[in-house]
Amino acid sequence: MIDFTLPPEIEDVRQRTRAFVAEHILPLEDDPENYDEHENIRLDLCDEVRAKVKDAGLWCPQVPKERGGMGLPFVGQAVMYEEANYSIFGPVCFNCAAPDDGNMRVLNQVCSEEQKEKWLDPIIEGKTRGAIVMTEPHPGGGSDPTMIRTSATPKGNGDTWVVNGRKWFITGAGAADHFILIARTSDEPRRELTAFMVHKETPGFELVRKVPIMGPEEHGGHCELTFTDMEIPDENRLLEVGRGMKVAQMRLGPARLTHCMRWLGLSERCMKIAQDYIDVREGFGVKLADRESVQLMMGDMAKEIHMGRLLVMNAAWKLDQGDFARKEVSMAKVHCANMLHKVVDTAIQLNGARGYSKDTILEWVYRYARQARILDGADEVHKMVLANTYRAEGRDFWSWGAPS
Question: So what's the architecture of 8-97 in CATH?
Answer without folding.
Answer: Orthogonal Bundle (1.10)
